[in-house]
Amino acid sequence: MEARRRKDSKKRDEETNGEIDSKKKRRAWSGCTARRGGRGGGGYAVRVLGAPSDAVLAFLHLLYAARAEAAVVAAHGPQLLALAHAYRVGWLKRAAEASVSARLAPGAAVDMLKLAGLCDAPRLRAARARLAARDRAAVEASDGWRFARRHDPALELELLQLLEDARRRRERWARARA
């Protein structure tokens, strides 16, 4: 009788541990779902957290095409840059970096400078620094600048240092020309 109780107890413990393990697995994979399409369609839905679905579709399209299409990269530049950095796709990262750098806007300079730092994109960082140096007033009037001043003092300090370096460089060039 005692042996049977131990066996039943052991079986219950294994079932409980199995349920706990499956709950942990479900919790760990809850953000990353893949499910079969309806009625034998054979399609799968894969969610990539942190990126819009259009950008993920463009990313997958570009991966399968194995070449950067300018229109697609221009439409989803910052998101493709982040995805290419996260999944280590060098050629797509360079194309997205060039596309984002080509479309410079003073209002988004701070945001793109932060993205360049997160995605390790030196050409984008240099282009945004040049833009910030050229049009400092527009950059300081942007929402990104106000947000950086309130919430990210390291980014604000980096941007101020870039602006100061640009000012010193202009003065040095002016002295060299004179």
UniProtKB/TrEMBL annotation:
One of its GO terms (cellular component) is nucleus. GO terms for biological process: regulation of DNA-templated transcription; response to hormone; response to hydrogen peroxide; response to salicylic acid. Residues 1-15 have a biased composition (Basic and acidic residues). GO terms for molecular function: calmodulin binding; metal ion binding. InterPro entries: BT1/2/3/4/5, SKP1/BTB/POZ_sf. Residues 1-39 are annotated as: Disordered. Keywords: Metal-binding. Pathway: Protein modification; protein ubiquitination. It comes from the Eukaryota. PANTHER family: BTB/POZ AND TAZ DOMAIN-CONTAINING PROTEIN 3-RELATED, OS04G0482300 PROTEIN. This is BTB/POZ and TAZ domain-containing protein 2-like. It comes from Panicum miliaceum.
